[in-house]
Amino acid sequence: ELSDAVFTATGQRILERYGMTETVMICSNPYSGERRAGTVGTPLRGTEVRIVDGEVQVRGPGVFAGYWPRPEPGAFTDDGFFRTGDAGALDAAGSLKIVGRKKDLVIVGGVNVSPAEVEAVLGRVPGVAEIGVCGLPDLDLNEVVAAAVVPDGSVEPAALRKLLEESAAALSGLKRPRRYAFVSALPRNALGKLQRGRLASEVTFDV
């Protein structure tokens, strides 16, 4: 949606790319040619990208040799791929889509659920100022999706809850939040990044 809005306003399509401090540039949409909105493009020449257990792993000439002076055990696989910690998927054309951080994924009945995907759907609901999604323990499914909502005050809580549940119907069953909480603010770090671990431990969700 953002890509389409920028294109409508400027006539230019956003150039989405992907890289890390440890790897420099990994993937890119073409500078000239069709750019696939929502993906970060295909691996650069000489760079290998694979998905293992939902995690993006990369090997190539731009990848660093390791953390110095304190190497991090497990940063690399036995065959030399760097574990990025990012969750992603490759489509049929070989373009990579980043869906979040692997540690943030909610595992519902063996299915990986990206909190960002759920937030993108529910964040458009009228009356929602902010929303944060996390996983909560569940005896049957391992985890269930929970949503902490900061209302903007324009919709009564009961009506807002109904709107959220109606919008969640656009998601597949396991991705729909089973529990909600209305809060005044979301826990964030000094840089403003949402801290999902604190959501699960500090917010009281309904049953």
Strand content: 25-35%
Mean pLDDT: 93
Report the radius of gyration as a whole number of Å.
19 Å
Oligomer: single chain
Q: What gross morphology would you assign?
A: globular
Q: Can you tell me the residue ranges where pLDDT is under 50 for at least 5 consecutive residues?
A: none
* Number of helices, where a helix is a run of at least 4 consecutive DSSP H or I residues: 4
- Counting helices, strands and paired strands, the structural category is alpha+beta
Percent helix among the residues? 10-25%
Strands, total number:
12
Which strand order spans the largest sheet, edge to edge or round the barrel? 4-5-6-7
- SSE pattern, N- to C-terminal: HEEEEEEEEEHEEHEH
Largest sheet: 4 strands, antiparallel
Word description of this protein:
The protein is α+β, with helices and mostly antiparallel strands. It is 17% helix and 32% strand. It has 4 helices and 12 strands; from the N terminus they run αβββββββββαββαβα. It has helices at 2-10, 115-122, 157-168, 196-202, and strands at residues 17-20, 24-28, 42-43, 48-52, 55-59, 82-90, 96-101, 106-108, 111-113, 128-138, 142-151, 179-182. The strands form 4 sheets. The chain has a 4-stranded antiparallel β-sheet. It has a 3-stranded antiparallel β-sheet with strand order 1-2-3, with no helix packed on it. Strand 4 (48-52) and strand 5 (55-59) form a beta hairpin. The longest helix is centred in the last third of the chain and has 12 residues, at 157-168. The two termini are 34 Å apart.
